[in-house]
Amino acid sequence: MTVPTTSFDGYVAAPFRPLIDGVAEEFRDDDVQIAAYVDTELVLDVAMGPEITRESLLVPYSVSKNTIAVSIGLLLERGRIDLDAPVARYWPEFAAAGKAAITVRQVLSHQAGLPQAVPRLTYDELADTVRGAELLAAQRPLWHPGSAFGYHAVTIGVLGSEIVRRITGRTLAEFYEQEIRGPRGLDFYLGLPEELEPRALDLLPMRPAISGPPAAGPPFPRTPGQLGGYVMAGGAAPASEDERRRQARRDRAVGMPAAGASASARGIAALFAESTVGLTGAPLLSAGTIAQLAQPQVAGIDEVIGIERRYGIVFQKPVPGLHFGGFRAFGHDGMGGALGFHDPDTGISFGYIVRRMPSPGGCDARALRIAQAMRSIVLHA
Asked: Which range has the worst mean pLDDT, 7-16, 188-197, 295-304?
């Protein structure tokens, strides 16, 4: 049973009320949404801050990648894809430049050596997943596939979309909309319709560090000439506030699968709940399919971002510094602070979006504290 809160907009189940009351003051000047299901019960759905509501939609950056994982999972569930098949079985052109043996599993666990192309793919080439895929198919991998792994921050969406398109005739965004988001009524969009723009909130610049000088950016390697700097380098900053707003609307309309979705925290949590236990129907994915997606594929120091990571099929797995659940948990964080995951140990499906990126970027430490506290409450109930 849920009870209305009084200090913020939303609902909280009684066992979690002390937790949310305890953190509410931290978000007095921030705009944040937090939502969670335990199995099929919505136990937490709150918005805190001066401008946000529970119906607001924000871009959660790489939390968007959870849509790729679930879409691939649905093809796996239906027997339409083999993770150990060469990508070229579905996409013959991909075999060029020494890539004939690269498997679907390797592409979807950041092992393919295609986190960028040389020359770099432009925004328009990444936004047009068919054109971007054509260019990546001609690219020789930046490392020998399978010898290392490195975060394919945006290209995993292009590669995943083309694999889906070759199998189904639909881009990943189209497949996700028609087979997952639309039928389940999820507030988690790849390409935000114009009529929903009034619900969208633009993200805000990074919050300065509490102590010390302001952070220069996300805590990833940016040394000139190094792989991380090449892959993660951003484009030029907008010249004006009007340009920034136009760019933000363009990004929402495009909805890149790897980093450009528009969602509410409730929509993020619901994607995991629909996938694992089912809210409006049977679970989208069986336990066997979930186990395949969530099984760790690689672990260690990521060649691109230079920090410890563990990946399943698209999904991240918990590691020190990103400890969002038990060893079976799976999900993805976002550069701007967002987080979405499911933890089979507790049945928690969790969504979190913050409007202002925390310093120095990456998953908001407050989201991890809340997730860990919720896990403890459920396990000790």
From this structure: 7-16
Query: How far apart, in Å, are the Cα atoms of 360 and each of 50, 65, 337, 368?
Result: 23, 21, 10, 15
CATH superfamily membership of 2-203+239-379: DD-peptidase/beta-lactamase superfamily (3.40.710.10)
Instruction: Work out the pLDDT band at 7, boundaries 50, 70, 90.
Output: low
CA–CA separation, 196 vs 182, rounded Å? 14
pLDDT at 219 over 60: no
What is the residue whose two structure tokens read 């339409």?
A: 80
Write the pLDDT tens digit of every residue in 160-215. 999 999 999 999 999 999 999 999 999 999 999 999 999 999 988 887 765 444 44
The angle that helices 129-137 and 155-168 make with each other, rounded to 10 degrees, is 100
DSSP assignment letter at 213: S
Classify each residue of 235-261 as buried b or exposed e, where b means 16 or more C-beta atoms within 10 Å of its C-beta: eeeeeeeeeeeeebeebbebbbbbbbb
The distance of Cα 149 from the centroid of its chain, to the nearest Å, equals 18
